[in-house]
Design goal:
42 strands; globular; Immunoglobulin-like; 18-stranded antiparallel β-sheet; 11% helix; mainly beta; eleven-stranded antiparallel β-sheet
């Protein structure tokens, strides 16, 4: 995943990685088995009495406890092992018995209603399977969304804290100027932690089944603010990490993928179930069921399920975790608990939802513990008086009207904040003012976004200051833009560049005027942009999340001697809405001159004595975009999107006319859909479908040029084995599918499982042609397609055969690299093409 949010975490970890907690760490692990059958015992409690730590055994009977400064035989260190239906065992540990095999003896008098399954696991004649089947069969009537109407009050608290705060750690020189932050030290699970972030929201939820509508009306919001970053983007990324989980859905969104729910319609195929106990919960008699993956490497949960014994087969409570063997990066110690309350109208509603995760470079390193706590109360099931609530405009977190309701939050919190939580707001405000912390933020900003802040202006992006290509040669660039301190409503940006081979200067000057009282980048943007640019362009190339002259793209394969010199004036209006629909209205005038081995001529000859020097293009355009429930992090010059289950639609219409100063009359229509398709344990596919059509007669320079990639970097939405300007079309359709298996196969191979590798496959197809109206071979008044100096064609039209390429890849190499073997299947006789290629990609993902 390309998430900037992950990058922020990783940079923080790296900055403190040398300051690991002092002291010796010992791991106590072993197995708990039945004394008579030697079968592993699931969910047995193993407790280290002297240290207040413990663990439960997994489906294989294994447990593991880590403890700092474990001293073994220097004092009596007692291990208590217990499981309902068995006699409790006590074991005194020494330094030499930290790997154990413990046998528990059945205690007949404590069995009661417990069903102890001592046989080899099987689905047939398994009472746990019978019970889970009833739970699955009754999902529809037991889920909260089965009622016609409901409303409730929701209180949500999300907090992050740095763990392993020891006295030695606090004395590190890096914290010399930040000692005041340690005044908020708190305790979590027996260890000291330092709170670093807190966000609270209080809202009213409204739900209607038919016609289906859901609405969350915010009543109050308060969050820690970090200077120099997109705070709304940080909140959206946190919301993406802690997505709402509905266990009654078949697939549960978790991190960047989806896990199969333990009560999904096909759950018994992938999970094992064991009945452990019958216990009361809030006066409801429940059966406790332990569940775990049949294959522990699959993307599945494990934990405990509490099913009500009132004949409803409703879930009263569920405890989820993720096995340590699951192929997940940067995350460990996942714990999720949901509780449901039985309402007066005989429905079951989610009453509390809590999840915690540890983010770190490794499972045993110092890291950040993130917790989300949600409480629902004041349920009502009456029919709404009117439906106007669903049409009520949602207030932004940053709306002044919402900020005035902070007192309302103080008076209506579901639970009172701890002293350390109350102090974190003031502490972080103070931290933002410390010069040393500002320098750290400055360094992080440069590393992530490439800009150095100098107050009123910032210089960058630094990664564009140098580049090389065969036409321009060595290219230097220097630029920057104004900051919020210059103006929040108006931004100026400029750069100048020079190529030492073509000896031509290039430059850009642009401005953005915000039509709201917000920053010009803050969503939803409503702004006017105007710019003039004298710059080069690779034919058809549109960089994806990279600046146009990023130095990493200087290394190219094959022949790279085709370029356009464009002088472009652009004026456009962007208007975004809270529902993530947006439109852009614009005008663009471009004077286009061919460069390198490109020419505008009407003959097949290569003398170029009658070449056309340049052409003028004057366009009006409108771009419509709809991205439902989209979230992203706003960078300095781009947005980093979080993928969800919803498609993104985009429609673009361009029109050019000689009356506006253009050399040609034409219209162009393009439409595309992007969607991430989740396939549960099989991973997910990123799918892009696009179609386009040009109406009118235009030269090859204005035809559609497929997005080719001649670098050695693997690009998701490019043809990685196609050359620049190898094909042109005036009508086309394309499909790109990139599938991530998330280690589904590799996790089942012992050697590869330890490395954590993941599998990728892709297929990309382009079908289209050039109609007779725009075919230079049939029209003498159109520019000839480009050829080499010896007359060999280098640009082609697609025939009845589509362009096809595919790849297989291995990812998660050192957790950040992906390598693909790419094969081109068609048009192999074109010049300067290869059938096979190796491409790499830097990829941050969970």
């Amino acid at each position: 995943m390309r998430y900037c949010f992950i990058g922020l975490f990783l940079l923080f970890f790296i900055s403190i990685s040398y300051a690991q907690a002092d002291g010796y760490k010992e791991t106590i692990n072993g197995f708990v088995i039945d004394d008579q059958t030697n079968e592993p015992l699931v969910s047995a409690s193993v407790y280290l009495s002297n240290y207040g730590k413990g663990a439960n055994t997994d489906v294989n009977g294994h447990f593991s406890i880590k403890e700092n400064n474990f001293v073994g035989g220097s004092k009596k260190t007692e291990l208590r092992i217990s499981l309902l239906g068995y006699k409790t065992e006590f074991l005194v540990l020494s330094e030499n018995n930290t790997s154990l095999k413990i046998k528990l003896k059945p205690d007949v008098k404590n069995l009661g209603e417990v069903v102890v399954n001592k046989q080899k696991y099987r689905k047939k004649n398994n009472p746990a399977i019978d019970l889970i089947t009833n739970v699955i069969d009754n999902r529809k009537k037991n889920r909260s969304k089965s009622v016609d109407y409901f409303q409730n009050v929701k209180y949500e608290k999300i907090q992050f804290a740095l763990n392993k705060i020891t006295p030695e750690f606090r004395k590190k020189s890096i914290f010399k100027q930040f000692q005041f932050v340690f005044e908020n030290i708190d305790s979590l699970n027996g260890e000291q932690v330092l709170p670093i972030y807190l966000k609270e929201t209080l809202s009213n939820n409204f739900y209607r089944r038919l016609p289906h509508e859901e609405k969350e009306v915010l009543g109050a919001h308060k969050a820690v603010s970090l200077n120099g970053f997109d705070n709304r983007g940080i909140e959206d990324n946190i919301k993406y990490l802690y997505q709402n989980i509905d266990i009654y859905d078949n697939n549960v969104p978790f991190l960047s993928t989806q896990f199969l729910s333990p009560i999904a319609s096909n759950a018994t195929t992938f999970y094992r179930y064991y009945i452990l106990d019958t216990i009361p919960l809030d006066h409801e008699k429940c059966v406790k069921i332990y569940f775990a993956p049949r294959n522990k490497e699959d993307l599945l949960f494990q934990g405990n399920l509490y099913v009500a014994l009132d004949g409803s087969y409703a879930v009263k409570k569920i405890e989820l975790t993720v096995s340590k063997t699951v192929n997940v990066n940067w995350i460990s110690d996942v714990k999720l608990t949901q509780e449901f309350s039985h309402q007066e109208n005989n429905t079951w509603m989610l009453s509390s939802d809590m999840i915690s995760m540890k983010f770190g470079l490794s499972k045993n390193s110092r890291g950040i513990i993130g917790q989300k706590s949600v409480f629902y109360s004041k349920f009502k099931f009456d029919t709404f008086e009117n439906d106007s609530i669903f049409r009520k405009k949602q207030l932004s977190y940053y709306d002044n009207k919402l900020q005035k309701s902070e007192k309302y939050l103080e008076e209506n919190r579901y639970q009172k904040l701890s002293p350390s939580e109350e102090g974190i707001y003031n502490t972080m405000d103070s931290l933002n003012k410390v010069p040393a912390f500002k320098r750290i933020v400055d360094i992080v900003t440069i590393l992530l976004f490439g800009y150095k802040d100098f107050g009123l202006v910032e210089i960058g992006p630094i990664n564009t200051f140098y580049m090389y290509n065969p036409v321009e040669g060595f290219r230097l660039r220097f630029g920057g833009r104004t900051t919020d301190r210059f103006s929040k409503k108006f931004n100026l940006e400029s750069y100048i560049a020079y190529g030492f081979s073509d000896q031509k200067p290039k430059y850009y000057l642009g401005g953005i005027w915000s039509l709201t009282d917000r920053n010009f980048q803050q969503f939803p943007v409503k702004a006017i942009k105007m710019s003039y640019q004298d710059e080069t362009q690779l034919p058809g190339q549109q960089m994806q999340f990279l600046m146009e002259d990023n130095f990493l793209l200087s290394i190219k394969r094959g022949v790279n001697d085709k370029i356009f010199y464009n002088k472009t004036f652009k004026l456009e209006h962007l208007n975004e809405f809270e529902n993530h629909f947006s439109y852009t209205l614009g005008y663009k005038f471009t004077n286009m001159t061919p460069g390198g081995n490109l020419y505008f001529n009407y003959t097949d000859f290569v003398s170029h004595t009658n070449d056309v020097r340049s052409l003028n293009v004057s366009e009006l355009y409108v771009n419509l975009r709809y991205a439902p429930n989209e979230s992203f992090y706003q960078g300095k010059t781009f947005r980093i999107q979080n993928f969800n289950k919803y498609p993104i639609f985009e429609l673009r219409y361009n029109a050019s006319n000689k009356l506006w100063g253009s050399d040609y009359n034409y219209q162009c229509l393009r439409f595309n859909i992007r969607k991430r398709v989740f396939l549960s344990v099989l991973g997910y596919s990123d799918v892009v479908w696009e179609a386009g059509k040009i109406f009118g007669k235009v030269p090859y320079a204005l035809l559609n040029m497929p997005q080719a990639n001649q670098s050695y970097s693997y690009q998701i939405e490019s043809y990685n084995m196609m050359n620049f300007l190898e094909f042109v079309t005036d009508q086309y359709t394309s499909l790109m599918v990139d599938h991530t298996f998330n280690g589904f196969f590799f996790n089942k191979i012992p050697v590869l499982k330890k490395i954590g590798l993941r599998e990728f496959v892709s297929c990309k197809m382009l079908y289209g042609d050039v109609t007779r109206n725009n075919d230079p071979a049939k029209n003498t008044d159109l520019f000839r397609l480009p050829v080499e100096k010896d007359g060999t064609p280098i640009t082609y039209t697609l025939g009845k055969t589509p362009y096809i390429e595919g790849s297989i890849g291995v990812g998660n190499i050192f957790k950040v690299f992906r390598v693909d073997l790419v094969k081109r299947f068609t048009y192999l006789n074109n010049p300067h093409v290869a059938e096979w290629g190796i491409r790499t990609r830097f990829r941050l993902d969970f």
